[in-house]
Amino acid sequence: MSLRRMRREAAFTLVIITTLALAIGATTAVFSAVYQVLLRPLPYRAPEQLVTLYQSTPQRERMGVSLQSLQAWRERAFAFQGLEGLSIRDITLAGDGELERVRAGRATAGLFSLLGVRPLLGQDFRADRDAHGLLLSHALWQRRFGGRPDVVGQTLMVDDQLHTVVGVLPAGFRFAPDVEAWKPLVLAVDEPAGGVWLRVVGRLREGVSAEQARTEMTALGAALVREPGFAEEPAGVRLVPLHTQVVEGSQERLWLLAGVVALVLLVACANVANLLLARASAREREVSVRAALGAGRGRLVRQFLVESGMLALVGGAAGLVLAMWGMDLLRALMPPQFVDAEALRLQPHVLGIALVLSVVTSLLFGLIPALRVSRADARGALGGLRGGAGATRGEGGRVVLVVAQVALALIPLVGAGLMLRTVHALSVVPLGFNPQGVTVVDLSLPSAKYRDEAVQRALFSSVLERVRALPGVTSAGMSSTVPLWGRNGLAPVLLPGEAASQADSRELVHFRTTSDGYFNTLGIPLKEGRTIEAWDGPGTAPVVVVNETFARRYFPGRSAVGQRVQLVLDGEAFREVVGVVGDVQHNSLDAPPVSEAFVPMGQLWGLHMLLTVRASQDAVALAPVLREQLRAVAPELPSVPVSSLESVVDASVGHTKVLGSLLVALAVLGLVLAGVGLYGVLSYSVSQRTRELGIRMALGATGHYLVWRVVGQGLRMAVAGVLLGLVGAAVFARSLSSVLYGVSAFDVVTFAAVPALLAAVALLASWLPARRVTRVPLHEALRSDD
């Protein structure tokens, strides 16, 4: 009987199932991501004991740790069971396939033991014998070696040095993003003692708190700098719980999404409850007839519950399918800086919670009217007139639910509006450079072959010469980084006559190693003096080009050209400022420009450079040509990544666009559900008041008057919902403040446009059932329910 009724009421059944499916699907997908990233314990042994340690100064809260400091901490810090260091860099991998550049971690031998991670195949590094060992990630093992177990023991060439594969890590190990291989880091060999570059991970001893460890490390750091032979400047120590460090890049945005999807789920539950209440009221006569014919109250209640339960279960099954699609969508949309997309998995217990909530809602709001209807007096129900007291019974509850739906739907709409305004504001930020038509090639030279500065300079010069001669290429240059790439060199700055200690009190300057042609290629305007030229080499006077922010900061009220500055780097001399270029948005579009210094590539070399090319072809068409030129100059180089500078700009605001897109999608879903709820209540109200409205028409009321009477009822509910929702929207907007740009959290345009949009939807949802009033013949309306 329940299935037959569901088929007869196909429209009602479809709306209920669709509402539940969309709500359960969206809720399960988003909350699975929240659980996976923010709530699930890290997959390491006793993860609550793990912390990350940094050195810190007034200029930088988090800096890498030197080998000298790590060695001293290991010997003297008693708060930790162990301290291990790691660094990340690219390596060139050869053997069992073509040359390939992969992201690799270098770790001290005890890192994996400290984390409690055991290799899937083979073994961990052994400090006494695995200086040239190699651990493969599960992804690299599958992709390059086809998952063969005999890869353990195989010899590979890594940066022109032989390494032996000692093991394969488990599939779930993602300690550092994008890292596909791990090499041993030997403290006494790999780097000079003064290099500050390590990330340090520690495990606290049992019973030792992070605060106690922080106090000990602060005292230890102060003692070390006073010791003879300790080569470092004073620096504090910062401890960050490992879980905090892992989630801090995405925590705020994911919680915002979770809040919005929870609101949408509540809107859906209110919508389902409203529809079930309306249908139950419409079935009062049917139930009364069955009761008069002898059907017991228990049987009637069971039928209502079975029907509600079937709707919830079918909706939940459809929601599971949508949740799986939703997870695929999240994996595709989420940028790397937002969340590790590969780690996202559908969480069964999250699905269970959403399903239980929908079932409880369906059963509860199926039970309440069932009990009420089954108690109804048969004679009153059979003899009652539509439009009388029986018709209005329960209508107050449905009105409250509609008002709640509108209020809840308004909150994510305001958030979506603010994010759309933010995305627009970011899209019109002056970049300071022209990314159109610029292709970026990521070059990394093997350190073993290109340690000699002259060889490295000759290679880069040859590459530039060949690329500039290509058809369609208008200019080309090189730099250690480009705007919005995410890579920075930082150095203190001194002016002539200043003591070295003065550099410590200033913010660090961003410096870049740059070739001639770079500024022209990116379209960065020259404001004063000259740019870097080809003759600025090792045999010429040290020079530097600075940006406008640098010039204003260090030489206020006077020309920077001709002034001398020192970048406090190893062996750096004072440099003459020969030019000033325009500011660019280097770190992000929502941050002010930083002080930048550009040093000639011929005077400060590096193994890792970016080739920038302005050409008539796009990056896709240009990539194979550029790779061919690179192979002609250096056939030992691996295949290099090629991308357009426009894609780099787009990626820099990817997290904001993703958050905005998801908020808009969820807000539209909430708006549609609220509109459906309002339409359902008014449609039911009109059908129940047919006789009343017919009498009004017989007494002279016009169809126009009656239509607007119904529309007015809908608008009053919408206005009440909007007024309540604005309070919640103000609280939600304040929580969005940290991710907004160029727009206030209480933006007048948004807070005016969203209620107007809701009013328009309410008007449409009210007018559709209201217009039926004028389409019912007067004699049928008067005869209704006689």
From TrEMBL:
Gene Ontology molecular function terms on file: transmembrane transporter activity
Name of a matching Pfam family: MacB_PCD
Cellular component, GO, one term: plasma membrane
UniProt keyword terms in alphabetical order: Cell membrane, Membrane, Transmembrane, Transmembrane helix
Subcellular location: Cell membrane
Cell membrane as UniProt keyword: yes
Membrane topology listed for this record: Multi-pass membrane protein
Every MacB-like periplasmic core domain range: 13-219, 507-616
Entry's transmembrane regions: 254-277, 304-326, 346-371, 399-420, 658-681, 717-736, 748-768
Residue ranges occupied by any ABC3 transporter permease C-terminal domain in the UniProt entry: 260-376, 665-777
Membership in a protein family: Belongs to the ABC-4 integral membrane protein family.
Name of the protein this chain belongs to: Permease
Organism: Myxococcus virescens
